[in-house]
Amino acid sequence: MTNNKNRVSTLGKFRNALLASAVTLGVAGVAASGAILSDTQPVRAEQVQVQNQGPADFTGLVEKVKPAVVSVRVKSEVNPVTFQSDGRGFSMPDLPDDNPLNEFFKRFGPRGFDFDNNDRGRSPHHRNHPRFGMSQGSGFFISQDGYIVTNDHVVEDGSEVTVVMEDGKELPAKVVGVDERTDLALLKVDGNDYTYVNLSKDAPKIGQWVVAVGNPFGLGGTVTAGIVSADGRDIGAGPYDDFIQIDAPVNRGNSGGPTFNMKGEVVGVNTAIFSPSGGNVGIAFAIPASVVTDVVSELRKDGAVTRGWLGVQIQPVTEDIAEGLGVSSTEGALVADPQDGGPAKQAGIQAGDVITQVDGNKVEGPRELARMIAAYDPDTKVELTVLRDGRERKIEVELGKLGKQTASADTQDSGEQAAPTSLEGLGLAVEPSQDGDGVVVIGVDSGSPADQKGFEEGDVIVRAGGKAVRNGSDLENQIAAVKGQGRKAVLMQVERNGNSRFVALPMDEQG
After folding, report:
1. Is 0.70 topped by the overall pTM?
2. InterPro entries from the xrefs (predicted)?
């Protein structure tokens, strides 16, 4: 209630400010025309009017597009789970606490719903563990001959897919293909006379009205409206994150449903929400229509999406890392690790290289590089521009196919033992790794620079200042060399749980 009062008060002040601006603008206009202002000649100020761009209502739009939106029911065999009633006739299985998606958003399409006729409307927590569950989501026709777009996570692991039309008619559907990396799926039902909608060719602008239609909590045909809140959102769902953020209320079950612009075109496919409670809080994410168009085209043609593969682990070039590399720009993608057997390593790409261009096109950061490489077909040759040791190089790489398994070389125990090395200025204690490749962190001082940068016991430092290190002496020498160059941080390549990353570790006067 307090927020509403503040809002009313703010709007009132805004209205007064507009009126004041109208008078000021009117006076300025008369003065600029050269007229003589006097007490006997009144000033006529034109009133400033702001046209309301919003529609009076959405009925025309809804009547046009709603028949093309369907509910998607997916029957799947499930493992025994523990159900908890939420007090409204719906139940949800317990989700693992370590699920990374739970840290940021709640996926829709709740698993474990049982819609057997004898149990409809009853809370299932009284029943024994079911052998089958039913998930629900949304979808929409994109062609007259029965092709339907939805989310991959709606139909994954499904043994039987059914779409429910606006009039309640149920149709069996076939999964034509799925793309896990963009969370899209293409379905097909028999028939050739369906109302369908088009995918927009134009990206929506922030502030534009949008309408979401879907099947939240099993309540099919639900319509909500809002605006585009932001674009280009990266929510950690995958390497190709480029979500549209909307504030139209969407909830569990809206997954796979469309978001429309005022022309009745689909601008996005609702995929995720950010919600501490699991319900709508006004932050929802949709896959842009441009992505949907490309993915669906390949799914319809081949049943799968093939993408170019470079074979590198990459990370952003932060200001600290740029300082450690001795470069002034934070643009580009830093290669943390070229994978063994991958195209990049075979072409000569090294850890510590910064990829700045692909075929002459500028790379802003890791996300842009991932999308640019994915747009190429496998076996395509591309020219990468990289920064190495302060110099620009051109390297030609023949891309592989994303998803290709690569073999890693076996490591052998060298059997060497050496005394630990303490780097007090950095807050690290290290010893040589068993395979002789790098040094293992065996201690991190609390509150030290290393602690603040996230170092943990068990991390392996394989390079420092661009050079390989095999023992504490190598590391100390590289730190001294970097300090002698006048740099404030030493760039270290650190491996943890099979993943590689670069960390710029600040050096104090005694480091």
Report:
1. no
2. PDZ, PDZ_sf, Pept_S1C_Do, Peptidase_S1_PA, Peptidase_S1C
